[in-house]
Amino acid sequence: MTGSDPISDAIIAGSTSGELGDSINASKRAKRDRFSAFEAPNPPDQCSNSSTELSGPVCHSCGQTADTFHRPIWDLLVDILDGLFGLEGRLWRTIPPLMLRPGHITQNYLSGVRARYVMPFRLYLTVSVVFFLLIFAFDGFGGDEVSGTVPTPEAPVAAANLETLDERLAEAGIPESEREALARTAQAGVAQVLSQSTMTPEQRAQQRREDRDSMKQEFRQMLLPEVYGEASDPTLNGAGDDGVNINVTGLDELPLEVREAMVQRIDRIIDSGGATLVASMQRWAPTMMFFLLPLYALMLALTHFYKRGYFFYDHLVVSLHFHAFMLLLITGLSLITYVIPAAASYAVLFGLVWSNWYLYRLHRTVYSHGRFSSLLRVILLDFVYAIFLSFALLGLFIVGVMTT
Which end of the chain has less neighbouring CB within 10 Å, N or C? Predict the structure, then answer.
């Protein structure tokens, strides 16, 4: 292409081979010429941008489509949807092999077979949007404050179980002294259940408010002992035998302004029953997943540093396809669990087995590893990635608290 470079070629290729290009190729409806106040500077058989003679729906010189878009907006939307979701669209040529043939489209894409598939980054963005929309839509934050309902305590059942508790503990071989302590704890729990069963809705609401206030006070004492005094829990903030205040959490070393801001945010979280924290974590979850993509690609690169011919771009494509597969798998299994709650354990087991088998086949297909080598890499990647994911979730929780 005259006057172009590899970067611009890639951008043009991506734009002209996107859903819009699919819609132009897939749509068989005749498009009537309509009068427009904005006339093209060139004849209809020439590209309006580069004046190049057209030989198809896309200019081979600059990549601009030949469509004037001077049609009703609903006609344009139908064209785009036809290209995206039609049987001839690339989405349906990408999703089935992505889910059922591990490494197939990745191997094809890296080998140069690309036009028939959705671009990896665009595929991941589409799948992630669907994933987070569905997961957040069906994952309402439970609790009495949100649902407006109060669970009914099972007082008769608890009392009946208490009568046979000592017999079951004796059958389990627990000494009598320990059985007495466990019985006292169980009796206290049953007494609380019985008291809650006789509460009116107003009394239960008052009890929840008191519990929230107590929880907020504990956090205030822990974060701001100089303002609210010592915490009731000596393991957090307490006084030693010599009267010196002890803070084993180390939070008192933070600046006062930071601790005051934390108290305000924790108060909002407790008042909302945790809903504000969940909402904040939901906002940041896509960003966390986005940063995990190059991290996983880097892990793949480090495990293949000795092999020539593999570039970071190749590992990034593998990471994009694998994460898109995982998001689709979790979405599907979550929907099944939502419809059939009894299948939750089977769904988790299937997800673990299929995802690891997928990763194993991915190494076999894309990187041409042997069976033993692929198995070792799956175990190593699972272990290391689980550590990174744990830190990422912890960071997501911290960011969620600080941005509520």
Answer: N
